[in-house]
Structure formats: structure tokens, C-alpha cells
Design a protein that fits this description.
Chain lengths: 283, 328
């Protein structure tokens, strides 16, 4: 009828109505991004299957050999061996692989496709975007760690309890073992993210991460002081320090607090790299 | 930040939901320079892009168009100079989609996601209601493909998805880098209509292309660049006037007589292989006069109103980064 109703009034229509920028919006967006990739549920599921497979088969092997042990050895197994079965090193290794891969995918899926440009064009506050990624990946992998560790522990206990050899929650070291194993998941995921953000290419990221976390430690001699010092700064070695009570005195002893600190420092450094390294680059 | 900085009109309400009212939605590029190592991609470039019309950003490949667009969006950091949208550096905005919508490269997506999930995540990051995703998918004609993975999309479909992304925040400023690539004729027609409509709504629409013919039917105003430098900033009409009447084709029985006469009058004359003379610098009336005075028989006299394409080629001839070799 009138000009103002028949025409689209430019200024009124195009006005920028800007709601407050909330960090929770970015968390929600990153959550959608993580789960809309087909590889994410598959990576979680495959990691879980492998971890349970290793834990259960290790426990079942011990369950079968237990009756054949003499009384001393049976007592030794109840004191130390059962604890080791709760979440074996093989399971922990695959937890590091799986969670690390998921962390790396979360950033490489952006950097290797050019999606990062679309993301940063939509949200110029780059540090906030990367912090939201850290938050979402940490939450998802912590939840995953909890599920994987508790499922593994529950299954193992159920098997070993057949001979009364289970290590219950009251067993010394069990709560710490479970906590350290759960924490291993987000720490590994953050390391994967940090490596991905710095390297920004898929294959080199995988090679560098595996070399750093697995290959280099395996080449070092734990009896040598310098090598031992280096080993004590590694993720899987810190996890081992927290989960296994050595029956014999360690050559180069270190404290539980030291091991927790190592895990915290890895997570912190990786987070700082992830949040800040994209800030000044051209994309 | 918006409130009380003295730049915004009194219509602006400083409330929880700030209403940024009548502000200039101009893109202002000021002495912009970008250097990658030794290579100078953009050199001291200054121009403004006004709202309410489609502005073409024209230049040969490698002229620095994409680099400039990336600097407008804060993706690349200028070596020197500045660029602002609406008076502010884009990098300083916490969220961008409601300010500037952009299609830079249709390939800047993750092929593993569905179109729906891709847009949903972007919308969520900017607090844009989910319903807007379906609206823009419908707008670009991708409703039926919404739940298909982007990896299976054709280039044309990806361009449409990129346009949908740009429209998501209903922004007052829109940037498109080579948006017509890969679109079928129907798509090209649709995109032109869309750009004109967006401009008619008062938005600032800035569209890059390396093909003049594309811009001829799309833009009203042109920013022409070559080798990172500004060549022209004027309306399409003015720009095409540069090409109008620039040369006259003359078919004559005695080219060897006529050519020196024309040259003596200040024209430059090129003798084409088929005997035709191409004359630049004299109009057809003057050529006819000279021929008549000197009793030279002329069979044909054609004033060539040069196309926009020719004007463009001529202007950018010295600034073509990757020349075909034979043409020069």
C-alpha cells in the first residue's frame, strides 16, 4: 500500500541486530562439528572395542592360569597382578592412540580442508574458537575415558572374582589407577590437537606424535640417569608411575605428584599451543 | 565498543541487544599492501565499496583480488595499510556472520559433513536461529541436498552452499570471490538476480571476477586491479565508455596511400592481414574527410564500439601476471 510496506526498507531490514557473543555458542558449534564427522563415532567405537579386547583377554588368561599357581604366587597375584589387570598397558596404549587421533582429527579436519577459513571468517575471535575446540574435545574424551576405563575395570573384576582374585575399589592403588587412566584420554587428545595445530598436515602429525610418545621412549635405557629423567617426562611413563606399584625398588624413584604434574604440563602446553598458535597466522 | 565511541548515530540503542542503526556499511581499503616474502601481492591499494549497489572487483588472475578479500575478512594480515568494514577492523569483531557474509572459496568446507550440519554449526557459532539454516538452503535451492555429504557435491552445488553460508547471518555486507565459477547458465542467471536484489535492499555487495563479461551484466560499479594495484574505480558505464569508439576499421582500395595520411593526422594505424586498417585516434568522420580530400576510395568504414572486455583487456594488458605469450 504505502511505499514503506511495499518496499523492503533497506536500513530497517539490514540493521545489524547483534546478540551478545557467548562462549557457549562456540562450544555448541564445535560439538556439532565434532559429531557431524563420520570418523568421530567410529574412532571412539573402534578404540573402545580394542581396549576391552585387550583388557578382557589379559584378565581371562590370568584367570585360567591362576588355579595352577602355588599359594605364594597366588598371593602375589592378588597383591600386584590383579591391579595390573585392571587396565593393562596395552589398553592404555590404545587409549592414547585413539584419544590422540580424535584430538588431532578435530583440528586437522579444519586445517587440511580449508574449513578453518570459513570458521575464522564466521568467528573472527580465533582464540575463542580454538578454546571451544579444546573444551569440547576435552569433555568428549574425558567421558570416553570414563566409559572405557570403567567398562574395562568392571569386566576384568567380574572375570577375576571367579577366583576371588579381584582388586576392588578398596584395594590400594585402584582409585588412583582408574583416575590416571581416565585422565590419560583427555591428555592424549590435547597432545594430538597441539601437534595437529602446529604441524597442520595429517601424515606428519601422526608420524611426529607416535615418534614422540612411543618410539623415542622405547629407545631409551631406563637405567641411565639422563634417559630416565627424560622418560619421567613422558605421558605413558607418567601413567605407569601412577598405576603400577613396583614390587622392587626403582633405580631412579619419582613421586606420584611428579607424575600427575607431568600429565598436567603436557595438557597445558598442548592447550596453549592450540589456542594461541592460530592467532597471528594467515589462513 | 559500539556504544559511545561517537561514530555511531544517536539511533543506536545501547542495550543488551544492541541495535546498530544507520552507519555507513562501506568497505574502506586504505593504502593496503600485502607482501608474501619477496612477492608483492597487493601494492598500496585504496578504494571504497558503497552500499546499495553491486560492485565488481575485476582483475586478471593473480591481481591480488583474493588476497584483498581475505584481508577484508581479517584472514590475512596486511603488511601495511588498513581495511575496515563499517568503520571497524573485521578481526576485532567477536562474531562475523551478522556483519559480513562471504564466499571466498567454495572448497573451504569439510566434505564429510552434510550441508545441513555445516550450516548448522556455523549458525550456532553466531547465535543464529536454526530455522535460518533451512531458509538459506531453500534460498539457494539446496533443500533436497541438505542431508547429503558435501563431498559428493558438484562445484556448482558447492558455490550455492557458499552463497548460503554468506546469507546465513542476513548481513549488510556481502563478499563473493568468483561466485559464478562452476554454475550452470540457470545458476548464473539466478546469482545475478540475487546480487541485484541484495544490493537493492541496501546491502553492500562486492563481487570479484576475472571475466569482464560476467561483470557487465552483474555490477554497476567497478574496482579494477592489476598486479595488486588499482587501475580504475568507476561506474560500469564510465568504464565501458573507455572502450567506445576507440578504433575504426577501414577497408580501402589504397591502404598504402591512406595509412600515411592518417598517421600524419596523429592516428595510429595497424594494417591487418586481411588488408583492413585499424585506426585508433581519429573518428570515422575525420577519416572519411581525409579520404575524400585525397581521393582515396573507401569501401567500408566501421566505428568499433569496443566492448567492456576490450576496455578491460587494454587497461590490464600491462598488469597481466600470467600472459599467454602469443597475444602480446
Amino acid at each position: 500500500m504505502t511505499a514503506s510496506t511495499t518496499m523492503r526498507p533497506a536500513d530497517a531490514d539490514v540493521q545489524v541486530r547483534q546478540p551478545r557473543a557467548r562462549f557457549t555458542d562456540l562450544l555448541a558449534a564445535e560439538w556439532i562439528k565434532l559429531w557431524s564427522l563420520r570418523s568421530t563415532p567410529w574412532a571412539f567405537a573402534a578404540t573402545l572395542v580394542v581396549i576391552l579386547g585387550i583388557s578382557i583377554s589379559t584378565a581371562y588368561g590370568d584367570y585360567q592360569s591362576y588355579p595352577g599357581l602355588d599359594a605364594d604366587r597366588q598371593e602375589y597375584f592378588r597383591a600386584f597382578g590383579a591391579l595390573g589387570d585392571c587396565f593393562p598397558t596395552g589398553s592404555a596404549t590404545f587409549l592414547v592412540f585413539g584419544a590422540g587421533a580424535i584430538g588431532a582429527i578435530s583440528v586437522l579436519s579444519e586445517f587440511t580442508t580449508g574449513m578453518i577459513r570459513t570458521t575464522f571468517a564466521a568467528v573472527p575471535a580465533r582464540r575463542s574458537v580454538m578454546a571451544a575446540k579444546v573444551g569440547v574435545v576435552t569433555a568428549a574424551t574425558t567421558a570416553f575415558g570414563l566409559v572405557a576405563v570403567l567398562a574395562s575395570y568392571g569386566g576384568v573384576q567380574w572375570i577375576l572374582s571367579g577366583h576371588g582374585a579381584a582388586a576392588g575399589l578398596g584395594h590400594p592403588g585402584v582409585p588412583r589407577l582408574l583416575a590416571a587412566s581416565v585422565v590419560l584420554a583427555p591428555v592424549s587428545a590435547l597432545v594430538g590437537m597441539g601437534m595437529g595445530v602446529v604441524i597442520r598436515h595429517s601424515v606428519p602429525t601422526i608420524v611426529a606424535t607416535i615418534t614422540l610418545l612411543f618410539v623415542v621412549p622405547s629407545l631409551l635405557d631406563p637405567k641411565d640417569y639422563l634417559s630416565a629423567t627424560f622418560l619421567h617426562t613422558m605421558v605413558l611413563q607418567a601413567w605407569q608411575r601412577l598405576t603400577y606399584e613396583s614390587a622392587t625398588a626403582e633405580l631412579w624413584p619419582w613421586s606420584h605428584t611428579g607424575a600427575w604434574t607431568v600429565l598436567a604440563v603436557w595438557a597445558l602446553v598442548a592447550t596453549v599451543l592450540t589456542v594461541f598458535s592460530s592467532d597471528r597466522r594467515d589462513h | 565498543m559500539t556504544c559511545g565511541d561517537g561514530r555511531v548515530s544517536p539511533l543506536v540503542a545501547c542495550a543488551e541487544h544492541r541495535l546498530v542503526g544507520i552507519v555507513s556499511r562501506m568497505i574502506e581499503v586504505h593504502e593496503l599492501t600485502k607482501r608474501y616474502g619477496k612477492k608483492l601481492a597487493v601494492n598500496n591499494l585504496s578504494f571504497t565499496v558503497q552500499p546499495g549497489r553491486v560492485t565488481g572487483f575485476l582483475g586478471p588472475n593473480g591481481a591480488g583480488k583474493s588476497t584483498t578479500l581475505r584481508m577484508i575478512l581479517g584472514l590475512h594480515r596486511p603488511t601495511s595499510g588498513s581495511v575496515t568494514v563499517d568503520g571497524r577492523a573485521y578481526r576485532d569483531l567477536p562474531r562475523g556472520l551478522r556483519h559480513v557474509g562471504a564466499l571466498l572459496d567454495a572448497g573451504d568446507v569439510h566434505g564429510g559433513r552434510t550441508a545441513q550440519a555445516h550450516l548448522h554449526a556455523l549458525a550456532r557459532s553466531n547465535a543464529i536461529p536454526r530455522g535460518r539454516v533451512d531458509e538459506v538452503l531453500d534460498e539457494v535451492g539446496l533443500t533436497d541436498a541438505a542431508n547429503r555429504r558435501i563431498g559428493g557435491f558438484s562445484l556448482g552445488m558447492r558455490q550455492r552452499l557458499g552463497i548460503a553460508t554468506a546469507l546465513l547471518g542476513n548481513p549488510p555486507v556481502l563478499l563473493f570471490d568468483e561466485p559464478l565459477n562452476g554454475l550452470d547458465p540457470e545458476g548464473v542467471y539466478w546469482v545475478r538476480g540475487l546480487f541485484r536484489r541484495l544490493a537493492a535492499e541496501g546491502r553492500t555487495v562486492f563481487v570479484s571476477s576475472h571475466l569482464m563479461t560476467e561483470m557487465q551484466h552483474t555490477a554497476e560499479h567497478l574496482i579494477v586491479v592489476g598486479r595488486g594495484e588499482l587501475i580504475a574505480a568507476e561506474s560500469v558505464t564510465e568504464f565501458s565508455a573507455r572502450g567506445a569508439g576507440r578504433s575504426v576499421s577501414v577497408r580501402t582500395a589504397a591502404p598504402e596511400t591512406l595509412a600515411p595520411l592518417l598517421t600524419a593526422e596523429g592516428a595510429s594505424v595497424v594494417r591487418e592481414p586481411d588488408g583492413l586498417l585499424t585506426v585508433v585516434g581519429l573518428d570515422s568522420d575525420r577519416i572519411a574527410e581525409l579520404a575524400f580530400q585525397h581521393r582515396v576510395l573507401v569501401h567500408e568504414l566501421t566505428a568499433r564500439t569496443g566492448s567492456l572486455e576490450e576496455a578491460f583487456m587494454e587497461l590490464t594488458a600491462d598488469s597481466v601476471e600470467y600472459s599467454g605469450g602469443e597475444n602480446r
